[in-house]
């Protein structure tokens, strides 16, 4: 990998011996008591460092935690490589079995799906058919720049899925460059790349249907800007971004995203259901993932007529959450019966997750599964398990007996 002694504050880097050890440059200069130039890095993963940015009582920068920071010689850090260099490193060299196992993209449920393009027994064949690559995983390889745009389009013109998780990409312009040179690209994973707040210059990403932005530092204001560049987006994953509010720019509810079927907001900081209601007019939304937030209650909008009166037509198409079929609410703080009963009001809701909420945990005084099934009349899938006709009937009978009827 290319190495340099020139680093700038805010630059993303990784350890020259471990591309998975990624951090941000916070200091470049002299350290009292030590000769030469040192680079202070605040690592993404707590525990990768030895201190918090201070040595011998002198503070050089403020680390994220007590053991997230390190001082290293420049030669022990890498500023990264280009996209094409990473593709060649992964696909035009003799892959190990571990490398092959790491080739994957994320599915709708955010699980790894192996990418096997030309077969493990045809590694040499990849050398002559590089341009036929349709899916590529170059996660944690230190990609920091697109490189020569023309070389990208000439080398991998048929790429449809690209996993860039855990690299050093920061600039949205670089993302735009990559997408513009890959006209067939429909799925892009940028998870664990710390993206900048500046989104100016992002072109129209005409083909992108699946975009994964987990743990990228993105906020909802940026999501609203992205909407204008993603005319056909169907899946948007935003896990682990500390999102606590949803702030539409042009109205009280989120507009646009005409083809968005799945929105993943798991592992954020959403505490008020009113924030979630701002998503209620996304006409195509079928799956909404809200596991691991701080929600305490659920309710369906009770002023439907007001919503309808804002439109010339009173068709079903304007009912809140009109096409929502799957709602994942696991590991929140829901603890009231009214929230459970309100789920019956959602027009098409049939798949619900409530596990690890107080109301659904018998050990904490919550409801057992049979009671939840009896109260949720339309639900076909509860906590990832299908409800058979027999289980529903038995649950309803047990609920009647439970009430003492």
From TrEMBL:
Compartments, as annotated in UniProt: Cytoplasm
Annotated keywords: Chaperone, Cytoplasm, Leucine-rich repeat, Repeat
PROSITE patterns with a match to the protein in the record: CAP_GLY_1, CAP_GLY_2, LRR
UniProt main location, coarse: cytoplasm
SMART domains recorded: CAP_GLY
CAP-Gly domain ranges (all copies): 29-73
Cytoplasm among keywords: yes
GO CC annotations, alphabetized: cytoplasm
Subunit structure: Supercomplex made of cofactors A to E. Cofactors A and D function by capturing and stabilizing tubulin in a quasi-native conformation. Cofactor E binds to the cofactor D-tubulin complex; interaction with cofactor C then causes the release of tubulin polypeptides that are committed to the native state.
Family, similarity comment: Belongs to the TBCE family.
Designated name of the protein: CAP-Gly domain-containing protein
Biological source species: Gossypium barbadense
